[in-house]
Design brief:
It is a single chain. This protein has 113 residues and is an alpha+beta fold. It contains 4 helices and 3 strands, in the order E-E-H-H-E-H-H. It has one domain: GIY-YIG endonuclease, CATH 3.40.1440. The chain is globular. The N and C termini lie far apart (34 Å).
């Protein structure tokens, strides 16, 4: 069974949050950065910066979690993000340790600001 990821992106000023889902987090982050879909929400609002992700056992569970998070108000999403990333640092996609379910990379100094 292939795993899935639910993730939250933001823009440079951290004023917009985007919740997404994928089976390949690095690939999906690259697609967002390269703006393969110019009219998409992430392209319009320049949400390219990863601030949170969860790995779940399968893509169906990831989709369910995405739907749940999308219903949450912004403040609740921020509270979730801050449980592992208190300063909303940007995770660098090349340094992600994707075997961790909720990865507090910043506490290990493996993210960028």
């Amino acid at each position: 069974m292939k795993g899935g990821y639910t993730y939250i992106l933001t823009n440079y000023r951290r004023t917009v949050l985007y919740v997404g889902v994928t089976s390949d987090l690095r690939r999906r982050l690259r697609e967002h950065r390269e703006q393969l879909h110019p009219g998409s929400f992430t392209a319009r609002y320049q949400c390219f910066y990863l601030v949170y992700f969860e790995q779940v056992p399968g893509i169906v569970a990831a989709i369910q979690r995405e739907k749940q998070l999308k219903e949450w108000p912004r403040q609740r999403k921020l509270e979730l993000i801050r449980t592992v990333n208190p300063h909303l640092y940007f995770y660098h996609p090349h340094t992600l340790l994707l075997s961790d379910t909720r990865n507090p990379l910043c506490s290990r100094g493996v993210c960028c600001r």
